[in-house]
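Lab notebook page, bench 4
Experiment: in silico fold of construct C2
Operator: M.H.
Input chain length: 106 residues
Purpose: comparison with the prior construct
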Amino acid sequence: MQELLDEFMNNELLGLSSSVPKCLRSSLEYVELRTWISGAEAEMKLVKYFLENSAVLKKFTLGLRCKRNEESIIFMELLRFKRCSASCEVVVDLEETYPTMIHKFL
């Protein structure tokens, strides 16, 4: 994940926003980030990229590790992201603070 984020921030992947790969638009149905994110700018840009460019995305799952007072800010940012797929469900698993709590945004 860190390598992907580094590439993204180094503008190697930023060019994809104007030329989205066909498979991303027409085939990608599920994304699961297996590395916990903290809401850093690069992480949120990557999440936004998938949500805005995946036309058939059904479910996007991510784990969130952040301070309790930052959760609502990150949730609001996630809710504001445009989604190319109207039926995409965003699932946020919170680590440590609420280990069993899962938030779903439809």
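Observations: The mean pLDDT is 82. The two ends are 25 Å apart (CA to CA).
Next step: discuss at group meeting.
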